[in-house]
Amino acid sequence: MKNRKKWIDWYDKTGKRYVTPVILIFFFVVAFVLICQMVKPESYNVKLFEVAEKTIRSPQTIEDPEKTAEEQTKAAADVDDVYVFNRETAQNRESLISSLFAYVTEVNRDAAEKDAANKKAAEAANNATPAPTTLDEKLASLKSKLSKDASENITSALSNTVLTTLLQMTVKDLQAVEKEVISALDVAMDQSVRKDNLTDIKVGARDTIELSNLPTSYKGIAKTILSYAIVPNEVYSAQQTEDRRKEASANVVPVKILQGQVVVQEGQIIDREIYRQLDLLHLLDQKMPIKQYAGFALLLLSLAVMLYFFTNKQKSLDKPTKNQYMLVFSSVYIIVLLMLLIIRFLEGVYISNISFLFPAAFGPMIIKILLNEKFAFMMTIFTSVASFFVFQSDATAAVNITVPTYILLSGLASIVVLRDYSRRSAILLSGFIVGLANTAFVILLLLISNTGLLTLAFWGPVGYAFLGGVGSFVLGIGMIPLFETVFGMLTTSRLVELSNPNHPLLKKIMMKAPGTYHHSLMVANLAEACADAIGANSLLVRVGCFYHDIGKTLRPPYFVENQLQGINPHDRLTPEQSRDIIIAHTTDGAAILRENHFPQPIIDIALEHHGTTLVKYFYYKAKEENPDVKEANFRYPGPKPHTREIAIINIADSVEAAVRSCDAPTKEKIKAIVDSIIEDRIKDKQYVECDITFQEIEVVRATLCATLNGIYHQRIQYPAEDK
């Protein structure tokens, strides 16, 4: 017993904080397992070099890295070497050849000047005329000049015979040879000269010399000099070549195995290449790459984060209710994923177009009834996202687009069509309408995909879609009681159960506080009419009114409707004591309802139906005794109404009490009372925390007046018998 008590104490103080996160994490893991189970590829028991027993198609579009690498290598190899053309090379070679002829001219001129000077000196001295400069001396001088000034050693490339012949030429012949060589060199070097075509360029240049007007004896010398002068003017660039090859490799479109592509035909031998592709598609091991597992985990995590922030933005919900909403939403989503798994299994046994039987409206319909319309839209989006990845593994691309689109449209239709869910017949009628809408959606989508009209592939999905729409609502009606029990949700059936007059708490009110019981029934009639008029939840309003004053059963005589024979206990109390008793009936009522495990919306009605209004009678009574009394001390603790339903009850409760206390209420008096109470509540800012609009308040005003006029209509005065 001690251990059990310790466990209960720990759970109440600490454990409750961890229950919701643990359950949500569990739902996340289950959703992840279900998604991965549905999207993982089908496996085949095939072996190398055996005959394929069936045609196997790719379940997804995937890149083939090996083939891509081969194409990239081939593209890089097809890129030619890059050579850089250098115009300065031609200019340098022309300058070199020009300097050669200039040096030859200079050597001859210097030799002539030297010989003339020596001869003149000898004549002046009456000496014998000295010998002229020899050819060998000229050759030595030329070589000396060439070796000093040239950027390369010409003397090693040109023989002594060539240089000697140049030295022996006349100035005119030397100029003619230079002109032809420079001209031919300019033509040759203006082309692209590389090592591989160097010989051909030289042959063409030599032919140009051969066809020139030079003396035959000088053509050989000119050809030799020209051949020496022609060098490659394009240099291989390793960096540019590598850059272009990288660019060509990068521009290669990745080789992909496309979704639906035939990998192996039935009866075909499974060679190494086919086996490699099957392994790449994970059709042999039923596994997905780690990155895909991580991707689906991040996808579900993103959806969970969106749900968390969306729920926390609902300011009208307290923290326990937000946790409850997230748990309900997650559990419904798990059920939706289980349904998707069943559909995938049926597709696996080759039931054609069975995916259109998926009850797409189930999730949004359940969520709209249990939570609200906003969460229903989110469920539709979440379901569509999951279906896109689930049906992405199909072979036919048209199905990949059609089915998720159909699921999205069907979910949205269920939210729009489902308006009255207080009666099962209304829910079933909505299911029938959604079924018809589903058939219209499928026909539209199949026409877009150009499916033949007079085929089973067209009308089969239409029938499945209708059954899926109706079946969604049938399943929903069956599942709602389960959610009511597990999560304590407030639904129509639960409200009907609570409205039973034989309910213990209603019998308690009737027995202990009959005046309060009658007051509650009257408020229920008024508030229900107002709720119907503005489209609020009228059943919730009616049932909430039955229990809104349950707190008065603790001290019935202290409330005027239960006082008999004009005895008022408040006459013996101070205004402060009376205030405490009156105000306590809201918190006492909420406590009683919590003890009896009532749904939170009913508890909220009991707690908030007076908002933070002023207990005017006892406030003014206290003010007579103490003018400095604070108004805030005589207000209900609240909170203020946070829903339209509670706002309606807030008005109807005060109006019923005020009209009942009025002598001979007429239309004018009723209208004045209703207007006064509503204006007072608006000025007191009692409805700033709920979503009721001024237009709806005006509708409530008119409905209350009409209903009360019907109740308190003028009656015929029957004469007494003696008259």
TrEMBL record:
The keyword Iron-sulfur does not apply. Pfam families: 7TM-7TMR_HD, 7TMR-HDED, HD. SUPFAM superfamilies: HD-domain/PDEase-like (SSF109604). Residues 516-658 form the HD domain. SMART domains: HDc. InterPro entries: HD/PDEase_dom (IPR003607), HD_domain (IPR006674), HDIG_dom (IPR006675), Metal-dep_PHydrolase_7TM_extra (IPR011624), Metal-dep_PHydrolase_7TM_intra (IPR011621), PgpH_phosphodiesterase (IPR052722). NCBIfam families: HDIG. PANTHER family: CYCLIC-DI-AMP PHOSPHODIESTERASE PGPH (PTHR36442:SF1). This is HD family phosphohydrolase.
